[in-house]
Amino acid sequence: MRYCFLLQVRPDRLDEYKERHRQVWPEMLAALRDTGWRNYSLHVREDGLLVGYVECDDLAAAQRAMAETDVNARWQAEMAQYFTGLDGRAPDEGFLVLEEVFHLEDQLSRTENHR
Questions:
Q1: 21 flagged as catalytic
Q2: Tell me, what is an example of a GO biological process annotation in this record (predicted)?
Q3: Domain boundaries, the chain
Q4: How confident is the model over 17-35, as a mean pLDDT?
């Protein structure tokens, strides 16, 4: 499954946020991998709109597995300061997941299977 989500980074903290992601803790990287996060990337606009993309079998299950790790609790606690609109939630609990409406490979596959 492919998932895309939105969060809002504080524009005045954007440079710091980007810097933190240049060297994510190795144990955080390992935890993400080990809990099923694949092809995970973050993209940010200059006003702080953050778009995340991840592939995993089940996003809710991957989030629950990460929530059980000590490293995720520490990372989320440190990263919360960079976000707005979380209403007391950790950043990884504040995802606004978007509906996928088009995927090129899926449509090509369907087209090729009908030839």
A1: yes
A2: rhamnose catabolic process
A3: 2-113
A4: 97
